[in-house]
Design goal:
By secondary structure, the chain is an all-alpha fold. The chain has helices spanning 20-23, 25-54, 61-70, 74-89, 97-113, 120-148, 151-180, 184-205, 221-226, 230-238, 245-272, 278-282, 286-306, 308-328, 332-359, 367-396, 401-422, 425-428. It is globular, with a radius of gyration of 21 Å.
């Protein structure tokens, strides 16, 4: 399915505009990658360290997982409306950037205050405040790539963007290893300051050139009626029984939930099973992040040949192999190996899932809203995944966390196997 509208005819008084996907490709990918890197740096540190902060008040892994999951549920409520608004702003001079910049500034305040909270109510205000604001603009930042890169290049662009995301795991792990055990307050101040700095640079070099972006044409009167609200767009995407969109959202829910659960509970697992300090346990994800970084771009190029959904299915298999290694070898080296394998499996999903959903959009005028579909599915998984895995830990003990994750991953494999048989050929092969 091609999302591009036919090019407008040129006249003697209207010189043809260069193809944005060709002329701005490298620069656009670089600066959008930095923008996504900026926000994910905060989220990765949040996922690594907030669960240990909650252990001061809760002993149940299920409760901690539930809290870590519920903060992602804000995206379900806010993303459709915010994504639809960003689609409207995309056709204006400022583009989607005001939502991203204002959201980042507001979200930084409660995040920095998390280690200053001296009681549970104050901590929950900070956690919920950050999650509500940060989830509102998270999907908008990811949609920026569609404003500057043509559909044919978005899959490869996602590879570079996800490579940038993997660097945030490296940054988060280094902050955990080098700063957390010395000054927790300083550690929580570094990621939001990094986010504000990098987002500002991205806007300065890319946002000011939004007039050159790959903008959709103005809507016709009929399109205004059909796309008049975010809920109308979502209803149109989900109402067709033969559409692969709902099943793809189920697959996104499953894989995002598994990954979020593993990331959220890794630090407590390291302290409880492996006997590591909080800082050392927070650094267990570092080798996996390096492996993700090295492999994600080759995976993006290989996915163009394999097909997006087939590549995701292979990723699920690799993820299962990783968590089984973690269960079989419950040592620090075994856990590191498990995170490397599962990170490589997740990389295949991270590169392909959102691009596959964009390909199902009826027009590029609603790509921000379709990103909201991704956010709804992934946020739902992130909301429930940690609680589900944490509950199984309460029932079986921390020693069996990886085995429980393998069972959940098997369900995910079945979903993507069926999806590969129903989705359009472009996404499969």
């Amino acid at each position: 399915m091609t999302l591009d509208s036919p090019p407008a005819p040129t006249t003697a008084t209207t010189p043809p505009r260069p193809a944005v996907g060709e002329r701005m490709n490298r620069g656009a990918v670089l600066w959008v990658t930095l923008a996504v890197f900026a926000q994910e740096a905060v989220w990765n540190f949040y996922d690594a360290q907030v669960p240990e902060q909650l252990r001061r008040y809760f002993t149940s892994a299920g409760v901690i997982g539930l809290i870590m999951g519920l903060d992602h549920s804000w995206g379900i409520l806010t993303q459709p409306s915010v994504g639809f608004l960003s689609d409207k702003l995309a056709r204006r001079r400022t583009g989607r950037w005001p939502i991203v910049l204002v959201g980042a500034a507001l979200a930084s305040v409660p995040f920095i205050l998390i280690p200053w909270a001296t009681n549970l109510p104050t901590l929950m205000v900070c956690v919920v405040g950050f999650a509500a604001i940060a989830n509102a603009f998270k999907g908008v930042t990811e949609t920026l790539i569609t404003d500057y890169i043509a559909p044919s290049g978005r899959g490869k662009a996602q590879g570079f963007i996800k490579a940038g995301v993997s660097l945030t795991i490296v940054v988060s792990s280094l902050i955990s290893l080098l700063v957390v055990d010395r000054s927790l307050r300083l550690a929580f101040a570094i990621p939001p300051l990094l986010m504000l700095t990098v987002l500002g640079l991205s806007w300065a070099f890319l946002g000011r050139r939004h007039a050159d972006a790959l903008l959709p044409d103005e809507e016709t009167a009929e399109e205004v009626r059909e796309l008049g609200s975010p809920w109308a767009v979502l209803k149109g995407a989900l109402r067709s029984p033969s559409s692969p969109t709902p099943l793809l959202m189920v697959g996104i829910f499953c894989f995002a939930g598994m990954w979020s659960a593993l990331r959220s509970l890794m630090t407590p697992y390291g302290t409880q099973v492996l006997g590591l300090t909080r800082g050392a346990a927070g650094g267990l994800a570092l080798p996996g992040a390096v492996a993700f970084l090295m492999a994600v771009v080759p995976i993006a190029y290989a996915s163009n040949r394999l097909g997006q959904l087939r590549a995701v299915r292979y990723g699920v298999v690799l993820f299962i192999a990783g968590v089984l290694v973690g269960f079989t070898v419950p040592t620090a080296p075994g856990t590191v190996a498990a995170m490397v394998l599962s990170s490589l499996g997740y990389a295949s999903f991270a590169v392909n899932a959102l691009a596959a959903l964009w390909d199902l959009a009826p027009t590029r005028k609603v790509l921000g809203t379709y990103t909201a579909l991704y956010t709804i599915a992934s946020a739902s998984g992130m909301a429930l995944g940690p609680a589900i895995l944490g509950t199984t830990v309460d029932l079986t003990g921390w020693r069996y966390m990886f085995l429980n994750a393998a069972v959940a991953a098997g369900v995910t494999f079945l979903v993507f196997t069926r999806l590969a048989r129903r989705a359009p050929d472009r996404a499969v092969a």
